[in-house]
Amino acid sequence: MRAVVTRVSQAEVTIAGQTAGQIGRGLLILLGVGPQDTPAQSKYLAEKILSLRIFSDQAGKMNLSLADIGGQVLVVSQFTLFGNCRKGRRPSFTEAAPPDLGEALYRQFLADCAAAGFPPQHGQFGADMQVSSVNDGPVTLVLDTDQLMDTPRRPGKE
Fold this sequence. Notes:
Distance between the termini: 18 Å
Mean pLDDT: 94
Number of helices: 4
Oligomer: single chain
Order of helices and strands: EEEHEEHEHEEH
Low-confidence stretches: none
Structural class: alpha/beta
Largest sheet: 6 strands, mixed
Shape: globular
Helix content: 10-25%
C-alpha cells in the first residue's frame, strides 16, 4: 500500500459538486492499493500514519501526533499512486490492485483508522473526485508498506 500524507489546516473532497468529506486541522491521506497488499498492511499503515509526530509543538518542533492536537483525517482512494511512468508518456496502471481488492482494502483502511480512534472523513472509491486542501508547512510524506515492512518486493523493483 502507498500513501501520500499531507499535514493540512483544512481539506475537502467533493463528488459531483457535493461535499463527501471535509476536515479542519489534521491529515489528508491519498491511499493507493497494490495487487499483493493485505489487511495486515492496511492496519500497519493506518497505525503508522496516525501516530506520526509531524505537528509542531510550542517550540516549533515536529513533536506532536494527530491525537496530541485533536486532529482529523480525510482519506481519498488514489489508484494512480501505482502509476508506472517508466515507458512512454502515458502512465500504466497495471501495478494497481484490481478494483474489487482495491475497494476492499480501502474500506479496511477506513475501518483501521476508526478502530485507532480516528473515524475518517472520506471520498468514494472509484468516483471522479475533486480534492482541495490547505497544506500546513507544507509537510508531505510518502509511505509505502513495501519499504516499511518486511514484505516481498513487487516484480520489477530491483
